[in-house]
Model the fold of this input.
Amino acid sequence: MQITTKRHYLSTVFALLSTVLLLCQSCTEAGKNGTNKTVFRYNQPEALSSLDPAFARNQANIWATTQLYNGLVELDQELKIGPGIAKSWEVSEDGRTYTFILRDDVYFHDHEVFKGGKGRKVKAQDVAYSFKRIIDPATASTGAWIFNDKVLSDKNGVISDTAFLAVNDSTFKIYLNEPFIAFLEILTMPYAFIVPQEAVEKYGKDFRANPVGTGPFVFKQWDEGNAIIMHRNPKYWKKDEKGVQLPYLDAVQISFITDRKSEFLTFMQGKLDFLSGVREGSRDLILNNDGTVQDDFKGKFTVRKEPYLNTEYIGFQLDPTNLKDPNPAVQDKRVRQALNYAINKKEMVAYFRNNIGIPGHSGMVPPSLPSFSEEKVPGYSYNPQKAKELLTAAGYTSQNPLKMRLSTVAEHKELAEYMQKKWAELGVQVEIDINQGPAHQETVDNGRAPFFMKSWLGDYPDAENYLALFYSKNFSPAGPNKTHFVNKQFDKLYEQAKLERDVKKRWEMYQAMDRIVVEESPVIVLYYDEVLRLTQNNIQGLEPNPMNMLKLERVRKL
Done:
């Protein structure tokens, strides 16, 4: 990286931003649309493909659907499970039957699909329909996995008609094949949001752009590629602690500025209320190298750095089946361990990410989860001497150098080049192969990348979701085990932990599994991510959380 070029770029952009800040001091009415209506505006640089929760697989879809729908249960800001459409629930002693009692004041949004255009009350039959729809092959939902292999099915894996049962209008039951300790967490995911059959049948595939839910905001317009507009739901069933009906905002507007620099400048102009995940370049303008806010930006807006359930890692493909040129070196765990020891993760996070992130000195499970313990799961810190010893023991020297090819995407080019340099200091020759995101994803998922950079963003807040990446029955592309790691002891612990209802015992199993991952090194844990969130100073109630959820029902714009 050319440091002088970077500094020149930053000084140029900083001068432009200083002008923007002066202009914005007069934008006191940035949050109003001229009629005293409060409109919360955020940008979605990544593609938003659907407003149907059955396809809420990425952040763009998840954030938008979260404003429109509700599930049976939901997570609070501390990632604890609380009531949603279900006011209460019980789990049977054997852990296989979940019984939910629904609220009697939840209504679908007013829409022409309902009699008289008035939204009807949500019933247990709607929950059964929504869940069966997720697993229906005709829906082709990317979320079918949340129920497949979990809910009641026959010996061939065909899900039973009685897996989801509406006992009456207000009582709903789910039957599992066996206990699954994280099942309630799974039900908090947008995939499990409740939809009305009338709207799905009317619109078919076009339900993606004609959503009808129960959430705090009602869909109004989607000009694809430009904007989505949602209005306040005047009949929303939630109230705050003082009995005031939610949401406080009158509307939500989503824009689609794809260029990160333009997005940042738009925020600085006061035309966006919120920014999440500030990228390199803009991040360097706001933060010092140690992660503190630069003096020129203090007080201009609110900056918060928060834990994020995302682990960035490098994977080794341990199954040579689909590799064009298999590299026998990756089969030797001494080589994998050496490449781990060679990276100065603390330096990497400090210099390239302005200390946004926690160096990966433990296993795959991130610090935001309660089972995390660096003391009980010690990982790899920077030790080039140890790395050299392991490489020599594995037969790789200056006369016989280790050669690798690292697959990644353009966004991670600088990180890859840094690691390339650190490995080169040990005589390891690493070639960097940069691909577009979809191509990289497809190559990794299908086992054709021998050495690759990836990340794992938790689907739900339980360590099982991270350890599932190493369970032998979860091979990609069908499952998340992209390294095709196999370890009998790990599998045994994983299967036991899924059934263990004692929290402390389950955490001990999680830690034992993570220790196996550290020892066998199918991955190099680079860092546990954090997210930088910027909000305008007139925004209140937008609380962060490790899932980086965007819940706007309690947000105020002053």
About this structure: The longest strand covers residues 302-316. Residues 355 and 504 are 32 Å apart (CA to CA). Residues 3-24 form the longest helix (22 residues).
